[in-house]
Amino acid sequence: MEVLSVFQQLKKDVLLQYKEHYPFFEGNWKSFTSQDIQNLIDLIAVEVKQTVSEKWIYTHLKPEQNEKLPRKDMLDIFSQFVGFSGWDEYVFRNTKQVVVEEKNKKKQFNWKWIVAFFILIFVSFFGFQFFKKEEKQHIEIQDIYTKKTIENEQIKAVAIENNKEIPIEVNHSKIETSLSDSIKLKIKSPFYNEKTVIIKPKETTKIELQPNDYAMMLKAFMKADIKDWQTRKAQLQLILSSDLEVLVMLKNNLGTEYFNKEEFTELLVVPSISVKKMEVLEIQYANNKKINFIRIQQE
Amino acid sequence: MKFTFYITVLFFISFFGFSQSVATPKLLAIESNFSVESVKVYQNNANLKIEDFYNYLSLYSQENTSEELKIEVKKNIFRLVENETILLSNFTIATDETILLLNFLAAINNKNYTFEVDAIQNTPSTEFNFWITNYQLKITQNKKVKIVNCSQKVFFKPVQKTFGSKQKEVWTVFLSTINVI
Predict the structure, then answer these.
(1) Of A102, B29, B36, B44, which one's alpha carbon is 20 to 30 angstroms from that of A74?
(2) How many Å apart are CA A236 and CA B177, to the nearest integer?
(3) Distance from CA of A268 to the nearest CA of B (A)
(4) Residue B11 maps to a domain
């Protein structure tokens, strides 16, 4: 350690020693006043039985940087003030200590970084595993002819795993699936033919559904106005089975209304407020492909 | 001996019949079969039927509605009521006479009446198999408007309904008599 640095350390120790006697002093050499200087001179006179001048303190202790080392006799005095036999011992002790401290610091430094490194590896590994987002793909559901997306409300999707059907959410006419595994899906809709498809990662981007003609006609009739009522009546006779059962679920499923074929046909031939508030949930077909069951939700 | 046997059998049969007739009305009561919340839902459903009823009457009354279409409209009107002989106030004329529905249709035919319902309110409590619904009826003809306050009986009861080869008992709402209040 360079001797000027040792002298800087001595200056710090002198200040600490001064504060031992004058604890209310909280400043540094820069803020050391003439009164403080006089106090220090008196202390040295008592402790070390030596005399130091105010000028010497101004010249050597108050400056932040020292260009050269002061006289050794003065260094001896201040070394004795801080508890050493003289400047030589002070230098010896501080130099050795610094080397030891630096060695310890190096050891601590190495050890600390090694531990930190392993902790970082550990945290990174498990954090990555935990927060890793599985890559997903979005499959759009479309009408095979119009190529338009089919409304969410008209679609139900289930995943088939081990012969069990697990419902899957449909958002904005899309189904979200994993990019890592193939998945078997069944898509159901009251107005489209049911479809079972195996989704292959990155290969399948859309599912096209075949509209059921009778169901589409029914949907159109329920939204129709009075125009073309005769055509509507004739077609309803063709597409509805004679043993048709229409089940209308009332609000919050607190009630049910039933219509047979005759009543439901009359209802659709002349449009009404009631029909405008109906939404088809499910359609079933007889063997002759005529509609024999309709489940409706009334708003 | 035979005479005593037959009398005894007839005696016990009469008790059976009596107990059946005592049990049946209670089973048919609305409150025995539906919760208050359910009844409200059916009442709201009946309110839609009342609106449909007057829309059908309006369509039936128009001169430009074809006779063929009027047949379909009539079917829908009668679908909403229990039978064609329900009575209603003839609110299209000044007097308070009541008239059969069939005759009312004849009275409004080709007369271009329109009917609009507003402020529908159901009575909170139900009778055995019906409730009362009150509403305002706006009757317009040739830009002349008349508003009457009406009170209508609405039945709610189980009926046998046929679905092709199957039959099922289903609870059904029927619109009934209408009085001007």
Answers:
(1) A102
(2) 32
(3) 10
(4) no
Q: What is the mean pLDDT of residues A70-84?
A: 92
Q: How many domains does chain B have?
A: 1
Place of tokens 């399948």: A204
Q: Could you list the beta-strand ranges (E) of B7-143.
A: 87-89, 98-100, 114-122, 130-141
ipTM of the complex: 0.84
Residues on B contacting A at a C-beta cutoff of 8 Å:
34-35, 37-38, 40-42, 44-45, 48-49, 51-52, 55-56, 59, 68-69, 72-73, 75-76, 79, 161-166, 168, 170, 172-173
What is the distance in angstroms between the Cα of A145 and the nearest Cα belonging to chain B? Answer: 35
Q: How confident is residue B166, by pLDDT bands cut at 50, 70 and 90?
A: very high
**Is B48 in contact with A255 (Cβ distance < 8 A)?**
no
Out of A96-105, A118-127, B60-69, least confident range: A96-105
What burial class does residue A116 get, using C-beta atoms within 10 Å of its C-beta: 0-12 exposed, 13-18 middle, 19+ buried?
exposed
Taking residues B47-65, report their average pLDDT.
96
The domain that holds B65 is classified in CATH as: 3.10.450
Q: Which chain B residues are Cβ-neighbours of A293 within 8 angstroms?
A: none
Q: In which residue are the tokens 């063929």 written?
A: B68
